[in-house]
Structures are given as structure tokens and as C-alpha cells.
Amino acid sequence: MIEEQLFEKYLLSVYRFLNFRLRSEKEIRDNLKKKNARDDIIEKIVIRLKEQKFLNDENFARLWVDSRSRVKPRSQFLLKMELKQKGISDEIIEKVLQRVENEGQSDDVQARALVEKNIKKYSGMQKQELYQKLGGVLARKGFNWNVTKKAIDDVLNEEYNAR
Fold first, then answer.
1. With 60 as the cut, is the pLDDT of residue 6 above it?
2. Which DSSP category does 72 fall into?
3. Are 32 and 44 in contact (CB under 8 A)?
4. What is the CA radius of gyration of the chain?
5. pTM score > 0.85 for this model?
6. What is the three-class DSSP state of 10?
7. If you classify domain 57-102 with CATH, what class do you get?
8. pLDDT of 1
């Protein structure tokens, strides 16, 4: 009887943990270990959550990337690092990032959107200073210099041609 009570106690704590956002299997396991749950109880809970469709690393990764792309755009390199920290397998990461690429949300598109969003802040600056400021913004989001330079060049050329 005590075994079942322990299971229910930890299961309820996981439901509360899931209430804020979806979690990866690693996040669930880490959370339960932090609460000193035994390994056999952790396994039972993971199995139960998978049966109830509350735990699916591929869905988690897809939703994580979609959310990041909309709210806080990042390079695929940074997204990959975040997903690895969440315990997502390389196979799932590649599959999800390939889908993003196929949907037209490549690093080039994301970087360009960030330049377009931020360029007004730096209007009136010299070209070199503009590259430094916008380059810094994109670097903090994980974009490499080639992608950054191309995005800035494209946006500046369009603005110049529009005048």
C-alpha cells in the first residue's frame, strides 16, 4: 500500500511539473531524482506518462523549436544545443531541424527577420557600427558570421534600393 502511495505522490508532482509546459523525458527523470524518487518508481511514471501521451520527446522537440522560432529566434546550432541539454536524441534533433529547414525557417530566414526587426534601432549609424551592433545581436542568438553578414547585407541593399 505504501508503494502505491509513493507512486501517486510522485505522479501528482510530475503532473504539476507538466502543468507549466511540456517536458522531455530527461527533465521528468531529473525532476523525480531531485525529489529522491526510487528508480523503479521513476520507470513506472515514465511508462504511465508515455501511455497517457504526456511524454513524447519528438513532440516536445518540435514544439520547443516552433516556440523558439516564433518568440525568441535562434540559430539551429543554439536550438540543437538547447535540445541536447534537455536530453533529446541526435536522431530526433536532426529530424525536427530538417522539418524546420523544409518549412522555410532556415538560419538565413531567421537571421534576416532579426535584422529587419532590429535595424530601426540603429538608423543613422555608420555602416561599420551598424554591422557591429546587428552582428552582436545575431551572434548572441548563435548565428555564424557568414549568415550574419549575408542577412545584414541583404537588408541594407534592399533599404538602399528602396530609396
1. yes
2. S
3. no
4. 21
5. no
6. helix
7. mainly alpha
8. 58
